[in-house]
Amino acid sequence: MKDLARLRTSLKEEIEIALNGQVKTEAEASSKYLAMASWCDRNGYEKCAGYLYKQSEEEREHMMKIFKFISDMGGTAITPEVPAVQLEFPSFKNVFEVALENEIAVTLSVNRIVGKCRREDDYATESFMMGFVKEQMEEEENARRALELFDLIEETSTGKFVLDKEIAKIGNE
Amino acid sequence: MNQIKSYPYQIEELYRNTKGCTYQCDLTNRVVLQFGAYVSAFKFHDFRSFCQKVNSVNIHEMIFNLSDEYDFQAIQTPSCQQTYRLSLCELVQLRDLLNGTKFTLELNSLLHERIYSVNA
Ligand SMILES: [Fe+2]
């Protein structure tokens, strides 16, 4: 009797489900950054809005990368449902506190998938996911740097103006 | 080797319960499901998503919700050629059949990985 599962796909069902979960996580991350960008725009932080729009696009690229990987491996990629996200923030600083929390959550979820790959002896998916492990190191570093800037620059009116400009430069220097 | 009336090829049995039986067709790479009066041939990934659909039905809703639309559950096959209309009891039996089949398929994969291909 043929091994139908293996002929069709190299992904075990559990891994496929986990990867589709990550597709959803990245889609949500993209949506969250978009909401933050909108908040910044509304409140005059124009440069940061641009920065967050870019972050949102990056998250969507991550989603697409995983989506295509599932398809390429013979699995079924599922278009994610994206729930409503937080639209309002109590302060400028809080936007970046929430951003860091989100990045940490994404890192944990990436790590869980790598762990699963190891338990299932799926080294192809593991090596694919290692790209995301690295990516998350950078993302967390950037999110922390933004909060660090709030410690360095006081939030007076000119301070806010400088913060807006400096945060938008993160990752480009 | 078996054959069922509405399916033209030779097939091997994967799992059986009182309400139905599943087979594997090596010629077409399909999983064939015979359940009550229904017969469907699934591509492998369609079989997986059909299992996920059947397993995701909320059985508690069906038991405790007294309105008519909860008496039966309609589940479409992924290629959308058929709709299974299932009572609570049938749903439980179909679940058993599908999950038993998944077990056999996984066991077969494991045998291929650990035994058949060891000397290859
Ligand atoms: Fe991401």
Can you describe what's shown?
Chain A is mainly α. Chain A has a single domain, classed as Ferritin, core subunit, four-helix bundle (Ferritin, Up-down Bundle). Chain A is built from six helices and no strands. The model of chain A has no long low-confidence stretch (mean pLDDT 95). With 120 residues, chain B is α+β, with helices and mostly antiparallel strands. Chain B has helices spanning 44-55, 59-64, 88-116, and strands at 12-17, 20-25, 30-35, 38-43, 72-76, 83-87. The longest helix of chain B is centred in the last third of the chain and has 29 residues, at 88-116. Chain B is globular, with a radius of gyration of 16 Å. Chain A binds chain B through residues 1-9, 13, 74-76, and chain B through 12, 24, 26, 29, 31, 43-45, 48-49, 105-106, 108-109, 112-113. Bound molecules: fe (ii) ion.
Report the uncertain regions of chain B: none
Structural class of chain B: alpha+beta
Greatest contact between two chains: A-B, 13 and 16 residues
Give the domain tally of chain B. Answer: 1
Oligomeric state, counting identical vs distinct chains: heterodimer
- What is the distance, rounded to the nearest whole angstrom, between the alpha carbons of the first and last residues of chain A? 59 Å
What Rg of chain B do the Cα atoms give?
Answer: 16 Å
**H/I helix tally of chain A:** 6
Structural class of chain A: mainly alpha
Average pLDDT metric of chain B: 89
Integer tally of domains of chain A? 1
* Distinct ligand kinds: fe (ii) ion
Strand order across the largest sheet of chain B: 1-2-3-4
> Rg of chain A from C-alpha positions?
19 Å
- Compute the separation of the termini of chain B in Å: 26 Å
Task: Please give the CATH class of chain A.
Answer: Mainly Alpha
Rounded mean pLDDT of chain A is 95
General shape of chain B: globular
Tell me the CATH architecture of chain A. Answer: Up-down Bundle
